[in-house]
Specification:
Elements (H helix, E strand, L loop, with lengths): L8 H13 L13 E7 L8 E6 L6 E4 L7 E6 H8 L4 H10 L2 E5 L1 H6 L7 H13 L2
Parallel strand pairs: 1-4
Antiparallel strand pairs: 1-2, 2-3, 4-5
Helix pairs in contact: 1-5, 2-3
Amino acid sequence: MPKHQFLSPSWIEETRKLRVEFADRVDPPAAPSVRLNLIVNQVPFDATQLEAHLDTSGGEAEIDLGHLANPDATVVVDYATAQNVFVDGNMSAALEGLQLGRIQVQGDMMKLMALAGLNADAGSIELARRIRDITE
């Protein structure tokens, strides 16, 4: 299976395909509606920072490139920490990143924290595994 760098255009495209493939197997939990803009620094495939977003307002978590208008919060994070949190689901990396200043939040921190308490069903867990499998 080909691997793609996290947040690269090819990674975004492959994760979209996986979300479509798993659409009937994932029963998303009642996710809080959160719209986050991400500024990712130290991106290995780009000389500048990368702008992305996470949006759960449609009922499922979508990560895509570019910024949203009127986000609940903006998160500035280094690439490695972002990958640990968003691909590996490592909430310890999120807490450590906040404590060490590798994650900076501007806006509604409570909305961001609500995402940490979500539980995943078997389909969501398999989708997350497949996303990890395609990620360099």
